[in-house]
Amino acid sequence: MSAEPDYDLAIIGGGINGCGIARDAAGRGLKVFLCEQGDLAQATSSASTKLIHGGLRYLEHYEFRLVRESLKEREVLLRAAPHIVWPLRFILPHHRGLRPAWLLRLGLFVYDHLGGRKLLPPARRLNLRRDAAGAALKDDFRIAFEYSDCWVQDARLVVLNARDAVQRGGRVETRTRCLSAEREAEAWVLTLEDLVQKKTYQVRARGLVNAAGPWVEQVIRQRLRTNAADRVRLVRGSHIVVPRLFEHERAYIFQNADGRICFAIPYEEDFTLIGTTDQDHEGDPGAAACSDDEVTYLCAAVSEYLRQPVTEDQVVWTYAGVRPLHDDGTAEAQAITRDYVLKLDDRSGSLPLLNIFGGKITTFRKLGEAVLEKLAPYYPQMTPSWTVDAPLPGGDFPATEAEALTQRLAEDYPFLSAAACRRMIRAYGTESWQILGEAGSLAGLGQDFGGGLYECEVRFLMEQEWARAAADVLWRRSKLGLRLTKAQAQALEDWMQANPAQRQAAA
After folding, report:
1. Torsion angle in degrees (nearest 10) through CA of 21, 388, 322, 115
2. Is the pLDDT of residue 504 over 50?
3. Does pTM top 0.90 for this prediction?
């Protein structure tokens, strides 16, 4: 007789969808295993425009269900993770040559009312001659519309979902590649390679979810050795970061003559994030990079609106991610649906396989619920959905109290700067005190790596959040890579390799 499966559900892929599903399933009582070939959020999920938004432009493609679901999720996520998700106002200048003002007003009216907005303020009309937002724009722009969406630290959202999954009994293994997954008599058998320990092992599960994102088709063909009628279309979205372009804390959304939109968003206190593009991508999704042409395009797009043009020599960092969109045959990349498509197959009512195509970071939680609804017949022991009102680690405080929490941290650790306190709360929320511990001075935080990063924080990230390399800390768990020199980043890498930590969360 075959041995009982080790797990109820195995998940391939440690991006936002995989980790969101793992969290939801673990919280419903399922034994969950997740493997990720690199670091959590190493690809698409750390390369977004950092927005939790309804998608104003999706209304033009009549994707009302997707927009409504996304609008509702803004406030769900704002309540669940007020430390890494926060409200952001967007300014849409009216361009006489593009969409007419009446159409923008109509779209924003629908945007305000379609998703049952409660926490976020409504849209309004601005006189750019009087409002501070007009100072950064060319004199041609006289009116604008302002509306609400949310900002998110995308990679931290992924990590917090993974941590919550583990805290609820799940198992998450990073730097672990799935070599193959085969249906046997009573279980899926996954053969895995631990890329750090250089060893292979197997796990057995009653069901399998392919949440490999841009690699979803590769997993189907090469790991599962099956065929699927559905295809993924890889679309690259590139971004640039420049020194801060304007003083206020609102973002701009610019309409471009080619029908695309471009954001200019306050970023990490001293910078502005500009994006994104929509280019079909060929080759390895993990090697995606912002091309010179895309840098030129983004600089030109925002320079059409800004009083001071943005030039390529201002760019301090670029990044690109590949969106794994469901290929619906649409000719233009920008018009492809951002909705998710779930494809389920089984063997005589057992051993289900569910492949995920598409999706967007805003709707990851609803995608997780949809996945488990499809899988429910195979797991009669599964409890009901629960994530709609459950906070993520560190997010157990009201969204309106973020400033008060920051002030409390400053009072408890008076040696920290105001900027350092804001960064800690916006990254770790109520867990900031756990990280800082009983330190009574900067020296008590341990080795200083530069940019406000100290040993106590690095140890927490290694022990609790799967960080194994400097890039994990500097470009995913934080964006302190913008502040450290190459020498400082190398010193951090050397220290982390010399001080390996066992993750307490995996115990």
Report:
1. 150
2. no
3. yes
CA distance 199 to 179: 12
Answer whether 214's CB lies under 8 Å from 324's CB. yes
Residues 6+ apart with CB under 8 A from 278: 235, 236, 237, 260, 332, 333, 334
Q: DSSP per residue over 227-265, as a string?
A: --S--EEEEEEEEEEEE---SSS-EEEEE-TTS-EEEEE
How is residue 192 written in tokens?
């895995």
Residue-wise pLDDT tens digits, 297-310? 999 999 999 999 99
Helical H segments across 219-288, by residue range: none
d(CA 74, CA 96): 30
Where does residue 247 rank: exposed (0-12), middle (13-18), buried (19+ CB within 10 A)? exposed
Indicate the SS3 state at residue 153: coil
Query: Whole-angstrom Cα distance, residue 148 to residue 264?
Result: 15
Spatial contact of 46 and 155, defined as CB atoms under 8 Å apart: yes
Cα(323)–Cα(332) distance, integer angstroms? 14
Pairwise CA distance, residues 108 & 124, whole Å: 9
For residues 175 and 451, give the distance between their C-alpha atoms in angstroms, rounded to a whole number: 27
Beta strands, E only, 311-382:
317-326, 340-347, 350-358
Tell me: the pLDDT tens digits for 380-430?
Answer: 999 999 999 999 999 999 999 999 999 999 999 999 999 999 999 999 999
Helix (H, G, I), strand (E, B) or coil at 67: helix
Helix (H) or strand (E) holding 452, with range, is none
Distance CA 68, CA 112 (A): 10
Closest CA to 93 of 40, 53, 131, 39: 131
Inter-residue contact 52 to 401 (CB < 8 Å): no
4 pLDDT exceeds 50? yes
CB-CB contact of 43 with 65 (8 Å): no
What is the token pair recorded at 69? 């679901």
Residues 6+ apart with CB under 8 A from 284: none
In contact, 239 and 278? CB cutoff 8 Å:
no
Phi, psi of 424 (to 5 degrees): -60, -45
Whether 54 contacts 191, CB under 8 Å: no
Distance from C-alpha of 56 to C-alpha of 145, rounded to nearest angstrom: 12
Q: Is the dihedral of CA 300, 146, 260, 40 positive or negative?
A: positive
**What separation in angstroms does the CA of 225 have from each of 181, 221, 354, 376?**
8, 5, 14, 25
Strand-strand pairing, 124-127 and 143-152: antiparallel
DSSP H/E element including 165: helix 154-167
